[in-house]
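Task card 7
Instruction: Convert sequence to structure tokens.
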Amino acid sequence: MTSEASSVDTPLKKLVGEKTAKALAGHLDLHTAGDLLYHFPRRYDERGEHTDIRALDVGEQVTVLAQVQRTAVRPMRQRRGNLLEVTVGDGSGGTLTLTFFGNQAWRERELRPGRWGMFAGKVTEFRGKRQLNGPEYVLLGDQTDGEAAANEQVEEFAGALIPVYPAAAAVPTWVITRCVRVVLDTVEPPEDPLPATVRATRKLIGLGTALREIHRPSSRDDLYRARRRLKWDEAFAVQLTLVRRKLQAAAWPARARPARQGGLLDAFDARLPYELTGGQRDVGVEIAADLATDHPMHRLLQGEVGSGKTVVALRAMLQVVDAGGQAALLAPTEVLAAQHHRGMLDLLGPLAQAGQLGAAEQATRVELVTGSLGAAARRRALAEVVSGAAGIVLGTHALLYEGVDFADLGLVVVDEQHRFGVEQRDALRAKADQPPHVLVMTATPIPRTVAMTVYGDLEISTLSQLPQGRSPIASHVVPAAEKPAFLDRAWRRLREEVGKGRQAYVVCPRIGEADAKSGADEEPPELDDNGRRPPLAVTEVAPLLAEGPLHGVRIGVLHGRLPADEKDAVMRSFAAGDLDVLVATTVVEVGVNVPNATMMVVLDADRFGVSQLHQLRGRVGRGTAPGLCLLVTEATEGSSARERLDAVASTTDGFKLAELDLEQRREGDVLGATQSGRRSHLRLLSLLRDADLIRDARAEAIELVEDDPDLARHPALAASVAALVDADRAEYLEKG
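Output:
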């Protein structure tokens, strides 16, 4: 402890000692009293209530509140000494085995049946039983057995509600509890930044009270009030940021790009080989109106895989070209950029052949700019772009490089926005003399409350209809560990599809050897120490399939480490039907369009996220034949990984899956935590469960900003917003 006046900025080493402070900093990134105060409990346990041991996942670092049921000592087979096995239960019917190696008779006496304790460690599995090897633990005071509960460790759990913190093996939850108590007892609470009128109107408790009660709640009601106040702070900070930026953006000047009768867009509509859906027409009207205004469009276009977003975007690009400007589309991979290029050339035909024999009168040029272009081709393409002859420019991040200049960039279309960093998108926008109009596309549906929070300064359009002719996709989970015969059947089923003249994908989580050095298409593999094998890899699976269950089938390989021309050649061969099966990484996740591909087998499907699996299976069923997606996993029945896959298999409703994805992910990641400061993510706010609170916070933010746009009369609030939604996050929110 310290006798000096302490504040939220006081370093922890002055409060809890250098050794503990070093552990908190090194393992949990907590450095000051304020950091610790905002390190909220993950949950609250009560003695006698279960924490559902059955739901624990292998490899998870956990803390469980449980009661000792029985102990057993037996000699070890491989070395001298005894093994102590302690079975604990949590009231749910689930049990967990704690194993301690060596002669530890004192531990057996301590861990006697009936004692309650908190046990922390990594979940492993041995012979079908969940266990913790050598866990850290602290026993709770048990007044019924005549023991005094006065020692310091037991005092931490004297209340009815026991906080369980996000912890680390070296810093278990009870150490954090002890440190929090020191901070609460010695640190002055921070000034409350929330205007008194808002607190009164919304019936919110003070900040100091909320911080105390969230760590040491007197009751469930007090905890609810504390969480509600702290959730409000998070929602209010985000909404104030979005509302202020939306007002600022409305004042930006931009060049209007109104539609022109008899131009490229009209000619394109006349030659389209199919009718637009009602949704495509309606969204097209919204975008056309935005482009005709003199401040920049900033619109998010979301729609299921195959809902026709690309055609909507192309029509917007043609309107800009009709108005004398240029449009650029930024794609996440060269494969997708090249496919967009081929697709647009096919759709436009003579309208994309300006300067060539047989070109239409209103024609423009469509250029592809990627990093793999040869020197001569690059010079030619860049000359077309800078002269304005190329009305439509497609490319990857190569468009961002110095030396790629536009004559008059009027519209930026960003495909699959989550694949790009803020700086990359901003670099492309900066290539215009005035802010260009921006259209962001995503095939990952966004729940309403997420859109309200993350994209509160964008207009949002949704395509919910699928074009005519799209076939249904059936999805099934293949439990390879429990029922190996099911996997054998999957490969036979794939051969049947190939035998009918159709094609298939086999998707793996990683490339193979040295993929930690690979490009941006995949994450490097995560090796765990729980006996679980590394994720399956393309370079290892492809030859095994060629020699085994898919012998004689024409197999191609596609991944992010292949040279660009080789990737393009493989995709062309697959699209032309020269390959039967493509063994690939998630490089095929977005945009790849082969209507003859009817089946996908996703290996180690539990290693992928919900939205990613939904995107992947959208690659099949794009023609007239129905699609089939098989999710192969070794995840055991009842595990959260298996439940996630069962949910994906049960529905093709992207919005339902987006909500499931959100429920299972850390909320802060939705706001791009990886692109921003370590303290700038949502700790408590649930974008799904707190929809009403978010809506109320937005209403208060609009009223406050209209009265005080710069928050000049609320300096404490401005500082609080800046701390929670730092400059990087504000930029992330602004750019969507």
